[in-house]
Amino acid sequence: MESNLAVQRLSALAQPNRLAVFRCLIRCGPAGLPAGDIARLLDVAPNTLSAQLTLLAQAGLLTRRRDGRSIVYAANQDAMSDLIVYLLEDCCAGRPDICAPIADAVARAACC
Amino acid sequence: MESNLAVQRLSALAQPNRLAVFRCLIRCGPAGLPAGDIARLLDVAPNTLSAQLTLLAQAGLLTRRRDGRSIVYAANQDAMSDLIVYLLEDCCAGRPDICAPIADAVARAACC
DNA sequence: TCCATATTTCAACGAATATGGAAGTATGGC
DNA sequence: GCCATACTTCCATATTCGTTGAAATATGGA
């Protein structure tokens, strides 16, 4: 993954509403949610939310598809794993004792 | 981890220079690097870098200690693991098939 | 076709951020 | 004490970001 893309994704997530949107969609899984439902759930103006969704989608963190009058957004898990892998890269310079704590934490986080 | 803290950490990482600083320090491990060395490595003005280091440290992503005339910065791995755990939280709403790809990617990323 | 719903785009404003010059603080050596 | 080194803090400026009202687009139903 390129550094620019990582920054773009981190920027997209680095805002309270956008992080909430993303986490909400992560929990929804591939089914996703229409923009309107997200706006209601998070109590954000539709046009404001639209800008936020666009930003997340441009960063590759969300996918969008039309379903009738609604536009359904869903989290892109690959983008998320790529970002995490990038952040963990080269974390111990070959010394396992250094990054063992991180590896442990990640293993515990595996939710399934 | 609180949402606010997650946003603060994501914001701190969401800038090319700061991400480079953090990755550089992750690779250095607990030994860390003096501010001046980082400035030279990344070719950033000392005062600009100082502001960036302060921001990363305030987010808890870096620790600092004085060593003679130098101030040595090191990556805080716990902060990083906490952030990653937070980002992975609730990722599959109880359905293992959904987040298996993420779990796989993270397992592959375990560098040691 | 006409209307209502769902969402986006545009333009503009205030707020927050990034950077750099200049001055300040802390440490170590003479 | 004095000076050089290593960083930081302060301040001003330019840029970017987030939000909102208003207008535009797309879809589905009567």
Number of domains of chain A: 1
Q: How would you sum up the global shape of chain A?
A: elongated
Overall mean pLDDT of chain A stands at: 88
Helix content range of chain A: 55-70%
Number-wise, the strands of chain A total: 3
Largest interface: A-B, 49 and 49 residues
> What is the CATH C level class of chain A, in words?
Mainly Alpha
CATH topology of chain A: Arc Repressor Mutant, subunit A
End-to-end distance of chain A? 26 Å
Total helical segments of chain A? 6
Major sheet details of chain A: 3 strands, antiparallel
The strands making up the biggest β-sheet of chain A line up spatially as 1-3-2
Q: Could you say which structural class the secondary elements and strand pairing of chain A correspond to? A: alpha+beta
Uncertain regions of chain A: pLDDT < 50 for 5+ in a row? Answer: none
Q: CATH superfamily membership of chain A, which one?
A: Winged helix-like DNA-binding domain superfamily/Winged helix DNA-binding domain
Helix and strand string of chain A, N-terminal first?
HHEHHEEHH
Q: What is the correct CATH architecture of chain A?
A: Orthogonal Bundle
Using the CA coordinates, give the radius of gyration of chain A.
16 Å
Protein name (chains A, B): ArsR family transcriptional regulator
Keywords (chains A, B): DNA-binding, Transcription, Transcription regulation
Domain HTH arsR-type (chains A, B): 1-95
GO molecular function (chains A, B): DNA binding; DNA-binding transcription factor activity
